[in-house]
Amino acid sequence: GQQVMQIPQYQHVQEGEDFTTYCNSSTTLSNIQWYKQRPGGHPVFLIQLVKSGEVKKQKRLTFQFGEAKKNSSLHITATQTTDVGTYFCAGFNNAGNMLTFGGGTRLMVKP
Amino acid sequence: NAGVMQNPRHLVRRRGQEARLRCSPMKGHSHVYWYRQLPEEGLKFMVYLQKENIIDESGMPKERFSAEFPKEGPSILRIQQVVRGDSAAYFCASSPGITTWTETQYFGPGTRLLVL
């Protein structure tokens, strides 16, 4: 079945440093979504990428979808303590009938 | 506009008891998804329902777990004869139901189940 992997599992950064999490799928995806989950909270939808090579920005967050639609990345510039949480990617298979979550990358930011 | 509501937020059960988790989707949403999250892990899909119909239950364990989304009232995830390994956070998500899977899913706050 479809597998979605994320690296790294954990990342500690100093406030102000950049952060990147990578998402890789075993199969081609029709689209990919990114979620953020604060400690003790629930996943909150951030963005959806659909097109091959697509890049979207939300303030300090930059999301990319690979040309082959099998990988994606989330980059945060100049992290802040409010960025703390676990970032999940979730990919739809080509038929668009199954959403598979990656294991998440837990970001910790030292003030 | 109320978001997805789940109750209870925390549930403690002893081994062998039943757990009933409820989910009310966002207003206007007709599709509901249930996910399980073990501590320090990602979300695992369990089941996808629309009113009175199970669309996909490929992630549901074959025994002890069932889900429904009746015409009236919330969606219910039922776990019979709970075991310690069922301890997890159970999240419900909803989507409008205009298309199928590829819609944005909005998550509820989750039910944290602890089995003693």
Which properties best describe this structure?
heterodimer; A: 111 residues; mainly beta; 6-stranded mixed sheet; 58% strand; B: 116 residues; 7-stranded mixed sheet; 4-stranded antiparallel sheet; 11 strands; globular
Q: Briefly note the structural class of the backbone of chain B.
A: mainly beta
Number of helices of chain A: 0
Q: What is the first-to-last residue Cα distance of chain A?
A: 41 Å
Largest interface: A-B, 23 and 21 residues
Number of helices of chain B: 0
Most strands sheet of chain B? 7 strands, mixed
> Helix and strand succession of chain B?
EEEEEEEEEEE
Shape assignment of chain A: globular
Mean pLDDT over all positions of chain B = 92
> N- to C-terminal separation of chain B?
36 Å
What integer value in Å does the Rg of chain B equal? Answer: 13 Å
The level of helicity of chain A is: under 10%
- Helix and strand content put the structural class of chain A at mainly beta
Radius of gyration of chain A: 13 Å
Question: How much helical structure, as a percent, in the residues of chain B?
Answer: under 10%
Poorly predicted regions of chain B: none
Q: Tell how many strands the DSSP assignment of chain A holds.
A: 11
The H-and-E topology of chain A, N to C, reads as: EEEEEEEEEEE
Relative strand content of chain A = over 45%
Mean of pLDDT of chain A: 93
Quick synopsis:
The complex is a heterodimer of chains A (111) and B (116). Chain A is mainly β.
Task: Explain what this protein looks like in three dimensions.
The complex is a heterodimer of chains A (111) and B (116). Chain A is an all-beta fold and 111 residues long. Chain A has strands at 4-7, 10-14, 19-25, 29-37, 44-49, 55-58, 61-65, 71-76, 85-93, 99-101, 105-110. Chain B is mainly β and 116 residues long. Chain B is globular. The N and C termini of chain B lie far apart (36 Å). The interface between A and B is medium-sized, with 23 and 21 residues.
